[in-house]
Amino acid sequence: MTYASDIAFTDTVKAIQSRKGSRNAYAQMETSGGWQTEITEDLKEFLTTQRSIFLGTSNANGQPYIQHRGGPPGFVKVIDRNMLAFADYKGNRQFISQGNLTDNPKAFIFLIDYLNRVRIKIWGHAKIVENEPEFIAELMCSQNEYKARAEQVMIFYVDAWDRNCPQHIPQRIDREDVEELLQQRDLRIAELEEQVSLLKARSK
C-alpha cells in the first residue's frame, strides 16, 4: 500500500470517488498524513471509555459476519502500538468469528460513542488464543465486578484506523450516565433544601 487508506480505498473505490467528485479531497488527505497505522494516545484514551464494539470477519468464501462484543468500560486493552486484546466471554457458542478467523485472519473493528457522537474504524487482522489462563486473568484483572466467564482471548493487530465525522449519529446516553446525573441532581436538591431550611430558621 502507498497510503494507509489504501486498505479500504481500492482502485475500484477510488474510481467511484473520482466519478462522484470526492477523490481530490481524499487524495489531499492521503498526502497530508492520512489515516493512522499505530495506536495513538487519543485512540488509547477513547478505548478506555468504550464498553461495546462490533467485530467484522469473513469466511474463506468472502461471506461477511458482524459480531457484537461488550464488557465494562475499557475491556479492550491496548497491548502495544499495534496490538489490541480483550477477553472473549462465553456466549452462544456458535464460534462463527473464530471459524472465520481460522480461514481468513483479516478483521475489522467498528466503535461508536453515541454520547460524544464519535465513530472509529479499525482495519487489521486477528486471531483467537486459547488455553492461556494467565493472559485471560491479566485482561480480566480490572473486571472483578463484571459477571462474565472469559473463555479465550481475542488479539487484534492494527493495520490502519480512522475517525469518522459525527454526521447522522443520534446522541444517546447510557443508563449508568443518566443515573449518575440524576444522583448529582438529587444531591444538589438536598443541599439547596438544607440551605432553605437554615435561612428559614434564621429569619424566625
Helix and strand layout, with pairings?
Blueprint: H1 11-20, H2 23-31, H3 41-47, E1 52-58, E2 64-70, E3 77-80, E4 83-89, H4 96-103, E5 106-113, E6 118-129, H5 133-140, E7 150-164, H6 175-203
Q: Main traits of this protein?
A:
204 residues, alpha+beta, Pnp Oxidase, Chain A, 3 domains, seven-stranded antiparallel beta sheet, 6 helices, 7 strands, 35% helix
Structure description:
- The longest helix is centred in the last third of the chain and has 29 residues, at 175-203.
- Helix content is 35%, strand content 29%.
- It starts with 10 loop residues before the first helix and ends with a helix.
- Strands 2-1-5-6-7-4-3 form a seven-stranded antiparallel β-sheet.
- The radius of gyration is 22 Å and the shape is extended.
- It has three domains: 1-35, no CATH class; 36-172, Roll (Pnp Oxidase, Chain A); 174-204.
- The protein has helices at residues 11-20, 23-31, 41-47, 96-103, 133-140, 175-203; strands spanning 52-58, 64-70, 77-80, 83-89, 106-113, 118-129, 150-164.
- The chain contains six helices and seven strands; from the N terminus they run H-H-H-E-E-E-E-H-E-E-H-E-H.
- The protein has 204 residues and is an alpha+beta fold.
- A hairpin with a 2-residue loop joins strand 3 and strand 4 (83-89).
